[in-house]
Fold:
Amino acid sequence: MIILIDNTGGVPIYEQIYKQIKAHIINGELKEDDMLPSIRSLAKELRISVITTKRAYEELERDNYIYTVAGKGSYVAKKNLELLREETLRTIEEHLSEVIKLAQISGIDIDELEHMLQVMSQEV
Structure:
């Protein structure tokens, strides 16, 4: 599992860890009952505070993406992947609604938006 930290983006480090681990779970790279790195080892690997890593794990556990067994570690929780996909689609729809509103205000038509999306998807 690869986690990359961006110190220049303004997104809190714990949130970056949360989002990346969540993405690994949703896309199937991490499967049910897979063991996650210990909080200390991940903090050491990323060269960040143990408290920061602990917060990311607590958020993941709160949202039922992982579970922790005392003295053993943290593991990927059983999750309804279809429900996760729906959650992701809903978030994308919310963002796209904002984009459409901004485009309408700016006089940008749907063809320009589609072209922008195609160009941007090739860059990622």
In short: Helices lie at 13-26, 39-46, 50-62, 81-106, 110-123. The chain has a mean pLDDT of 92. The longest strand covers residues 66-69. The longest helix spans residues 81-106.
